[in-house]
Amino acid sequence: MPPLKRQTSFSAKSPNLPPSKPCNIKVRPREYLTAAEVKRLKGAARTTGRYAFRDWLLITMMYRHALRAGEAVDLRWDQVDLNHGRLHVNRLKNGDSSIHYLEGDEVRSLRKLKRDYAESDFIFSSERQGPLTTRTVHHIIARAGEVAGIRFPVHPHQLRHAKGYQLAGRGEDTRAIQAYMGHKNIQHTVLYTKLDPRRFKGFGRD
């Protein structure tokens, strides 16, 4: 008779296991920010810390261009055409890259940032002229959320979702939103249109 295989059981209370991650719904009510919350977040960043201007511009561009944290820290100056106001966005997760237009305040702010970090190849740099880490970006945004008085923990990806829901709420074409966000699969884009309140307008009337 072959020997029985030893089975090891682990309980959720085992001291050898890391604590389980709580469900997102237990931490925050939703995975996106409203336009008003983004405005408060940017305002808080602009008045907090030694690198307030850099942090404000980081949050501004992450929101406007639906950037993931990794995409933001990888941005280099050779991806920017300040003369024509354009930004080449390289997407992670096998997403489609695209060229975005920069608003006038972004161009002016980028010119100032380039003067402040003249030795760096990266747009968002540390004091040592190297790229920021994604961990630093998480810290910047979480701290700004606390200063802004947002009642739940804020993380970088909420800015990307905020832009998706904003574009869907404005009635922009779904295919255009897909291209702007860099989604390979349009089903990822459709998630934003599902929360568009305009399709339910008038449903509550007696």
Characterization of the model:
This protein is mainly alpha-helical and 206 residues long. It has one domain: hpI Integrase, Chain A (Orthogonal Bundle), CATH 1.10.443.10. The protein is 43% helix and 5% strand. The chain is built from 9 helices and 3 strands. A 3-stranded antiparallel beta sheet has the order 1-2-3, with no helix packed on it. Helix 2 packs across helix 6. The chain starts with 23 loop residues before the first helix and ends in a 13-residue tail after the last helix. About 8% of the residues have low confidence.
Descriptive labels:
206 residues, mainly alpha, hpI Integrase, Chain A, three-stranded antiparallel β-sheet
Helix content, binned percent: 40-55%
**What is the topology, as strand order, of the major beta sheet?**
1-2-3
At the fold tier of CATH, the topology name is hpI Integrase, Chain A
Q: Rg, please? A: 21 Å
CATH superfamily: Intergrase catalytic core
Task: Provide the domain count.
Answer: 1
Note the total helix count: 9
Look at the structure and give the CATH class.
Mainly Alpha
